[in-house]
Amino acid sequence: MFASYMINGWIMATIIAVVAGAVGLFVVLRGMSFAAHALPLGAFPGAAAANLLGISELWGLIGFSGLGVIGITQLAQRQRRDVATALMLMALLGLGTLFLSLSGHYAQGVYALLFGQLVSVSRAEIWPVLALGILIIAALGLGFRPLLLNTLSPDLAATHGISAGRADFGFLALVGIATAMALPVVGALLVFSLMIGPAAAARSLTNRPATALLLSVCLAVLTVWVSIAAAYISDWPTGFFVGTLAALLFAVARLSRRFHRLP
Amino acid sequence: MSTLTETLNVSALSVAFPGRQVLKDVSFSLMPGEVCGLIGSNGSGKTTLLRTILGLQAATSGAVHLNGAVGYVPQKIAFDMDMPLRARDVVGLGLDGNRFGLPLPSLGKRRKVEAMLRAVGAEAFADQRVGDLSGGQQQRVLIAHAMIRRPRLLLLDEPLANLDVRAVADIVGLLHRFARDEGVTVLVSAHDMNPLLGVMDRIVYLAQGRAATGKTEEVVRTEVLSRLYGHHIDVIRVHGRVLVIAAGAADEIPIAIEKHPVHVCEIP
Amino acid sequence: MSFFNLIFAPGFFASAPVQTALVIGSAAAIVSALIGVFTVLRGQSFAGHALSDISSAGGSVAFLLGISALWGFLGVAVLAAGALELAGLRRSKERDLVTGIVLGAGLGLTALLLHLDIGTRSSGGAAISVMFGSIFAVPASMIVPMLGVSGLAVLMMGLIYRPLLLTSLDPNLASAQGVRVSSIGLLHLLILSLAVTLSAMTIGAILSTALLIGPAAAAVQIAHRPGRALLLAGLFGLIATWGGVLLAYDSYTWTPGQAWPVSFFITSLVSLIYVAARLWAKRPVARRTAEA
C-alpha cells in the first residue's frame, strides 16, 4: 500500500483533500452543493475534449469548469440559481457525450473519470496540482474575512464595500478550479461529496470559523486516506468509500448536534 | 447651507427606479447626538433613503453630505443556524471584515470586541452561535458590529420589527445611550413611531416619496401629515401614544393610504 | 421525395429500434417536461437531478442481476425520493446539503455496483449505457411497461394538480387552505422519480436533467399561465426528443460507421429551445421599458 509507486498517489490525494476541505466549508455555508456537484460533472467532458486536442487532461477540465462558472453566473442573473446550474450542467454534459463518442474514449476510461481512480501518478503530474492547490488555499486565506462576512449576509458585507456579485463569482471560480484538479483522482461524481461531507460535519462540531476550516480540512484528509486504504485492501472503487464516509460523517455530526448543543 | 457641525446633511434628494419615483426632493440634516426616526409605511422609501445615504444606491439628483464614518444595521438578517460563527466573531468582523488575510489573534482587537460586547450588553451570549440567538440578541450583536468602528452616524433599518415589547425597549434604550453618552447621531427607520417617541429628537416622515421633516411635535400633526399624503389624516394622541388614522369610510380611502398602517402600539 | 429523404434518411420510420425509441422517448419527454414545470417552480432542480443520478445505482443493479434496467432505475429512484422527503427540511440551504449527501452516498453505491458489473460480466459498456443511455437498444417489449409508468405519473399529476400548483407557488398559502404540504411534497418527489426513471432509460441517468429542467425552464420563460406552461414544456420536450432521434439516425451517414449519440442531440436541441425562449421572453420587456 505504501510501495514507492503509490507514494505519489498519496501525495496527490492529500493535496486534493486539503483543498476540497477548505473550499468545501464555504460551499456548505453558502448552500452551493448543487454548483459543487454540477461543476465537476459538467467539466469531465473536458478530459475527452483535451484528448481530442492532444493537450493535458487537467487543462481540458479547467477549461470546461471555467465555461460552467461563467455560464452559471450569467444564467443566474435572469433565472433561479438552481435552474441555471441544471441548464449549464445539461449543456456541458450533452457536449461531453459527443466528445466521448468522437474521441473513442473506451468505457473503462469513462468509468475512471466518473468515479475516480488513483493509479500510478507521476512526479510530473503532481506539480501543476500542487501549484493550483497553493493558489486556491492562498486565495481562500486572503479572502477569508470578506468571504465569511459575505456568506453571513451579503447586505452586511456590501456596507463594508464587499461586492456580492464579485464575491460570488470569485468563490465559484475557486470551486471550479478545485473540482477540476480533484476530478481525475476522486472522479467527477464524487468530488463534491469530499467537499460537503467533511465540511458539514466540521461546522456542526465547532462555533469558531477558523477552527471549522481547520477541522474541515483534517476530516477531508482523513476521509481520503481511509478511502484509499480501504479501496486498496478491498479492491473496491475509492469513490464508494468517499461517498459513504462523507454521508457517515454528516450523519454523526447531525446527531451529535441534535443531542448536544455547543456552549 | 451645511455647517461643519452637522453629521449628516441631505439636500433635495431624489431617487428614481425605472418607471417609479421613490424619493422626491427630500431634505433634512442631523446634529451630533440626535436620534432621528425615519417613519413611513412599507414601500415608502425608507430603505432606499438609507441605502442612498450609504452610497449603495445612486441618487437621481440632490446631494448627501456626511461628516465622519457611518455604521449600518441592515433590515432583517436571517442568520443561518448552522454558521459556525459566535456573536463575538460577528462583532469582530465589523472591525476588519473587509481586510484580506487570515484573522490572526490580536490583543488590541480582542479588547475592542470585549468593550463593544459590554456596551451593548451582549457579554452573556458572546460565545453562542449567532444563529441560536433570539431576535433582540441578534439585533444587539448587529449594533455592536456597526458601532465597533466608532462611527459618527449610525443607520438602522427597521431594527425593531419582529421584536417583542421588552426587546424593543432594550434596543431603543441602547440607541439612546449611544446618542446621549457618545454623541453618535442615530437615524433609525420604523413603520411605527410609538416606541421611539420618548427618545426621538427629530423625525423624517416619508409618504408617497416625499418627506415631512423637523421636530417630532412639529411634524406629527393633522395639517402636516394631511398635506404630505394629499388627503385628510387624523393624528390623535392618547395616553402618550400617537395614532395616525386615515379619515373616511374604507372604500373612500385611496390605495396609498389604505396601505399605511394605523399606528397602535404599546409604549412599554 | 428527395427532400423528404434528405431529412428522414431512408428506412427511418421502418426501423423497429427507431419506432421503439420514438414511442418511449415521447413518453419520457412529456412526463419529464410536465413534472419539470413544478420542479422548476418549487426550486427543486437539484433534487430532480439528484434523483436521476442516484437512480443510476438501480441501473447498475439491473445490469448485475440481468433484469431490465427500468425496474432498477425505478426501484432506486422511488427509494431515494423517500429518503429525501424523510429528511423533511424546509430551509433551502439545508435541503440542498442533505440532497447532496444522499446523492454522494448513492453515487458511491453506483461506483461499487458498476465496478462489480465490470468485474463479473467483463463488459465495460455498463457505465456508458447506464450513465448516458442507449435509446436504440431498448427492446420493444419495454414499450408497455414504460407507457404504464408514464400513465401512472400523468394520472397522479392530474389528481394532485391544484394542490401541487398551490404548494409550488407558496407553501404557506397552501397550508392555510388545508393542503397537507408535506404529503404533496412526497407525491411530487414520487412522480419525479417516475419521470427520471423514464428519462434515464432514454438519455441516461446523468443526462435526464435535460428533459426534466430544460423544456420546463424554457416554457416558464414564455408562458404566463400554468396550463400553457405545461403545454409548452411538453411540446418542447417532444420536439427535442424527436429531433434528437432523427438527427442521431441521420448521423450514421455523416461519420461513416459511427452514429453520434442521441443524448447529445437531445441536450443540444433543449439548449437551443431554451435560448430561443429567453430571446422571445426578452422582446416584450424591451418594448415596455422603451415606452416608459
TrEMBL record, chain A:
Transmembrane parts of this sequence: 6-27, 58-76, 83-100, 129-149, 169-192, 212-233, 239-256
Record InterPro entries: ABC_BtuC-like, ABC_TroCD
One Gene Ontology biological process: response to zinc ion
GO cellular component: ATP-binding cassette (ABC) transporter complex
Membrane topology annotation: Multi-pass membrane protein
The entry's keywords: Membrane, Transmembrane, Transmembrane helix, Transport
Localization terms from the record: Cell membrane; Membrane
SUPFAM superfamilies: ABC transporter involved in vitamin B12 uptake, BtuC
Family of the protein in this entry: Belongs to the ABC-3 integral membrane protein family.
PANTHER family per record: ABC-TRANSPORTER METAL-BINDING PROTEIN (PTHR30477), IRON TRANSPORT SYSTEM MEMBRANE PROTEIN HI_0360-RELATED (PTHR30477:SF13)
Protein name (Swiss-Prot/TrEMBL): Metal ABC transporter permease
Species the sequence originates in: Acidisoma silvae
Automatic annotation (TrEMBL), chain B:
Keyword check for Amino-acid biosynthesis: no
Alphabetical list of InterPro entries matching this protein: AAA+_ATPase, ABC_transporter-like_ATP-bd, Metal_Ion_Import_ABC, P-loop_NTPase
Keywords tagged on the record: ATP-binding, Ion transport, Nucleotide-binding, Transport, Zinc, Zinc transport
ABC transporter domain segment(s): 8-233
PROSITE patterns on file: ABC_TRANSPORTER_2
Pfam families, A to Z: ABC_tran
Keyword Oxidoreductase in record: no
Domain of life: Bacteria
A GO MF term: ATP hydrolysis activity
Gene Ontology terms: biological process: zinc ion transport
Family: Belongs to the ABC transporter superfamily.
Protein name: Metal ABC transporter ATP-binding protein
Organism this protein belongs to: Acidisoma silvae
From TrEMBL, chain C:
Top-level taxon: Bacteria
TM segment ranges: 21-41, 61-84, 96-116, 122-140, 147-164, 184-217, 229-249, 261-281
Keywords: Membrane, Transmembrane, Transmembrane helix, Transport
InterPro entries, sorted: ABC_BtuC-like (IPR037294), ABC_TroCD (IPR001626)
GO biological processes: response to zinc ion; transmembrane transport
GO cellular component terms given for this protein: ATP-binding cassette (ABC) transporter complex
Family stated for the protein in its record: Belongs to the ABC-3 integral membrane protein family.
Protein name per its UniProtKB record: Metal ABC transporter permease
Organism, scientific name: Acidisoma silvae
